[in-house]
Amino acid sequence: MSKIQSDDWRRSGQDFLKGVKLIAQDYFLYSSDWDHDHCEFCMAKFSMNEGDLKRGYSTTDSYHWICEECFQDFKEEFNWEVIKK
Length: 85
Ligand SMILES: [Zn+2]
Description:
27% strand, binds zinc ion, alpha+beta
């Protein structure tokens, strides 16, 4: 049984992430146009700055990031396949 509710506040239309492959990796800057990303679910911040997340799960294009906690909470529902890097 999943511990999260169907109306969990972190849900906000992430259906596009269902069944995708995710890469478990250290955070890196995908583009020089910005310096951080947010978890697709809880909006936790990924960046090179102290106190921000330094590791997580990204889509294969490294455009979308998911934090460890949300990954654990949603991995069964979203049926993610994790690629090790
Ligand atoms: Zn999160």
